[in-house]
Specification:
Layout: E1 2-11, E2 18-27, E3 48-53, E4 57-58, H1 69-82, E5 88-93, E6 96-99, H2 103-112, E7 116-123, H3 126-133
Parallel strand pairs: 4-6, 5-7
Antiparallel strand pairs: 1-2, 3-7, 5-6
Amino acid sequence: MASFMLQLPTTTTTTTTSRWRSFSASASSNGAAPGQSQSVGQGKGGPGVVELPLDKIRRPLMRTRANDPVKVKDLMDSIQEIGLQVPIDVLEVDGVYYGFSGCHRYEAHQRLGLPTIRCKVRKATKETLRHHLR
């Protein structure tokens, strides 16, 4: 959550004294209203963005796909320099997290020895999970 305040001087027409007019703005990366936190994957704001431990994310298709080592290395360099810019998408089914995309970002985090990764978590049903496993 980021908050900003801008103060601008205003003058009244009847006197020459200045008064300050304040404006404030707040922004959240997960769509939550200012001063509120959003539950993971719930609420009107859609999926929540959270840090999850790598070992809590199941990667059922990991063995069926090979990552491009150059892309992984480039991501490692970028993550070390500026951090992860785009969270990976994760499904939460009955309290278990499943990752199907973000394979290069996930491997880059593993190879860097980072314990967690930013995830956009969406609650899903077992039927949705079965669909992703096809």
